[in-house]
Design brief:
The chain is mainly α and about 675 residues long. It is built from 26 helices and four strands. The protein is about 75% helix and about 5% strand.
């Protein structure tokens, strides 16, 4: 626990130093970076120690807050979810200072206007540093909190600190809209959690997590209500469909390293909250597993379909976060189904696939968001139709982005393949079971995962091809240059982790024994033996693909050497008879995705605008597509408009007369006294 306390202290110190050193922008950013990296390193060491030893550490104390206690505890489950938080924070801490370089640079003239613009830009950067540091600290406190009131306080701090990251560039109306959408969604989720913890506290007469678990054993009828409240409350933060609408709005407008942290770590806090409640509920019901699989399937398929229709690179990546949360829930759902049906091997492999994908997603999605940030830094745009040809100008960024894209698609031998292999194995294992409910669930998982994989491959073929291949589609793209070394180093670390976990797949699976055992209630030894069953075919698959890639790389090297000896000349690519092809002759993002978006039009409701060529010698023709979010436009917008109309009618009680307000207070107190007397 010492390392955790030091970590939180350093993060809080960095936030305060950023404010104290405000007039000195360079010192402010350096202090924030040092505190973020060192604090996260301490926290990572502490989490790894708990994972290796399996011994939980705790800290308890009395505080002045009524109705709660200061109780922190890091067990194996908490330590596992601290890995993506602290690990990704180290990388984003190294990345952030270079990303912000040039914000509020030295003004060309010492005029009042320039000085005020400089001060405003410095304030934005400092606010972003503070937001990141407090977000890191609050996420870690949520994971470590074992008291309901402390948990809610840390949860609210996490929501508010991330709100200030989303509203970073508040001069734009779209940014303000995204920030308020996120804040409203966050507090809708918090409302469900408030009801959840009030219910748990009322039956346990305590706010301690251990008391919650003991009380639920005596209140079996309330278990399903607790599960549903947890799914709705934590599901909003995780970004499950249809509560995902804040995610594609908020992630694209935040600074890119903040987007990486929010997508790679913050939404996993929602997953943590759900599985923590599951550990308190005892043996689950069968329909809980079915519900998780259904929500996971819906989130996975719709997430990747919405991503396929996007034209903004970060918005595309944000929808893929929805997709991957769906994959995680498929694994957890299979695990819950295995526990409910008394199938320990199915439960172990299901939970292992979900937990490993939590870690894997934080790595490759962090890499992809950092790659998008590098593109934005170089081209000053994330609109796909304004990019292109960046691989020649930004070879390191392009290579790292390609590794992340291959990992998120699930190509071997990268880390995304490992967790999806476990999920496929769990699906096949479920199909072979005699119980129809389990077999059908396994079949659904297999079909959904196959559909998600194919659509994700098409989406990232579009993203990488449009952004990095072909010819530049704008003057800014043609003048792009590689980003600074710290940004490249941050991406390199995550790319190497994608490769290392993929090649070391058996070790990665074996390391999950402790956290999976806590979920299933089995011993670590038994869980390790069951994970070894799936580790053997996984090791064979990874080895075969690694050898094939090595052979392909060797053949490429021999070909390159032979061409160098032969002094081959380079010439223009054949352009189908056109002597001077222009960038407009390339595939656009819309045209590349159009065959698939048309097939799934009923789900994604893609709006297309096509102006066909006219006459024998047409001078103009155009095609454009725009994908709105059906959940936003068909569910949330009408609901909030209705709510706004209802609330507006209540304005009559807000008339500004203070003596009437005092009457309201007095009437309320009298009503409470009468109610209490009965």
């Amino acid at each position: 626990m010492f390392e955790f306390i030091v970590s939180i202290s350093l993060l809080a110190l960095g936030g305060m130093l950023a404010i104290v050193l405000f007039p000195r922008a360079g010192m402010c950013q350096l202090a924030g970076q040092i505190c973020a990296v060192s604090g996260s390193a301490f926290g990572l060491v502490g989490a790894l120690h708990v994972l290796v030893t399996g011994d939980a550490v705790s800290l308890s104390g009395v505080w002045q807050m009524p109705g709660g206690s200061f109780h922190l505890e890091i067990d194996v489950l908490s330590a596992f979810f601290l890995l993506p938080i602290f690990g990704l924070s180290i990388v984003t801490g190294l990345y952030g200072r270079s990303y912000f370089a040039g914000h509020g640079g030295v003004a060309s003239a010492a005029s009042w206007f320039h000085l005020n613009m400089l001060t405003a830009s410095m304030a934005l950067v400092i606010a972003a540093h503070d937001g990141l540091l407090f977000l890191l600290a609050s996420m870690a406190l949520v994971i470590a909190a074992h008291d309901g009131l402390l948990f809610l306080l840390a949860w609210e701090t996490m929501a508010l600190s991330s709100f200030f990251l989303v509203i970073f560039d508040d001069r734009k109306a779209a940014v303000r809209h995204a920030a308020w959408t996120y804040l409203v969604a966050a507090h809708l989720g918090t409302a469900f959690l408030l009801v959840l913890f009030v219910l748990l506290g009322s039956i346990a007469a305590s706010s301690d997590f251990a008391a919650y678990g003991a009380a639920l054993k005596d209140h079996q009828a309330l278990r399903s209500s607790v599960f549903l409240l947890a799914l709705m409350g934590f599901g909003v933060k995780a970004g499950i469909v249809p509560a995902h609408v804040w995610l594609p709005e908020a992630h694209p407008v935040a600074p890119s390293h903040a987007s990486a942290l929010m997508s790679g770590a913050m939404i996993k806090v929602g997953i943590y909250g759900l599985v923590r409640i599951l550990t308190l509920l005892g043996t689950p019901e069968t329909w809980w597993g079915w519900l998780l699989i259904g929500v996971g399937a819906l989130s996975g398929v719709l997430g990747v379909l919405f991503a396929l229709a996007q034209h903004d690179l970060k918005r595309l990546l944000a929808y893929h976060s929805v997709e991957n949360i769906g994959i995680i829930l498929l694994g957890i759902g299979i695990g819950v189904l295995g526990l409910a049906r008394g199938m320990p091997l199915l439960a172990v492999i299901g939970f292992a696939s979900g937990f490993l994908h939590v870690l894997n997603h934080s790595i490759f999605k962090g890499l992809l968001f950092l790659g998008a940030g590098a593109v934005q830094r170089a081209v000053h745009s994330l609109e796909l139709e304004e990019l292109g040809g960046l691989l020649k100008r930004m070879p390191w960024t392009g290579t790292f982005f390609l590794i992340g894209a291959a990992a998120i698609v699930g190509l071997p031998p990268l880390n995304g393949f490992v967790s999806e292999f476990l999920l496929l194995y769990a699906g096949f294992l479920a199909v072979l079971q005699p119980a129809a409910a389990v077999a059908v669930a396994g079949l659904i998982v297999l079909v959904i995962l196959g559909l998600i994989g194919g659509l994700a491959a098409a989406c990232f073929a579009k993203a990488f091809g449009i952004v990095f291949l072909g010819s530049p589609r704008s003057a800014e793209a043609s003048e792009a240059r590689e980003v600074a070394r710290p940004m490249r180093a941050s991406m390199a670390v995550l790319a190497l982790l994608c490769i290392a976990i993929g090649l070391g797949a058996p070790l990665a699976v074996a390391s999950l024994a402790g956290v999976v055992a806590q979920m299933t209630g089995a011993t670590v030894g038994t869980t390790s033996a069951e994970l070894a069953i799936v580790a053997r075919p996984l090791a064979l698959a990874v080895s075969v693909f690694a050898v094939l890639i090595a052979v392909a790389a060797l053949a490429w090297a021999l070909r390159a050497r032979r061409l160098a000896v032969a002094s081959a000349r380079r010439g223009p690519v054949w352009g189908c008879g056109y002597l001077f092809p222009s960038p407009k002759m390339q595939y656009t993002a819309s045209s590349f995705a159009q065959p698939l978006t048309t097939q799934f039009h009923l789900l994604i409701r893609n709006r297309e605008t096509f102006v066909p060529p006219q006459g024998y010698f047409p001078t103009a023709s155009s095609y454009a597509s725009d994908s709105g979010d059906p959940a936003l436009h068909l569910l949330f917008v009408p609901t909030f408009r209705w709510f706004d109309r209802v609330v507006t009618r209540l304005n009559v009680i807000q008339h500004g007369h203070i003596h009437v307000y005092i009457l309201y207070v007095a009437a309320t107190l009298i009503a409470l006294l009468i109610w209490e007397s009965f």
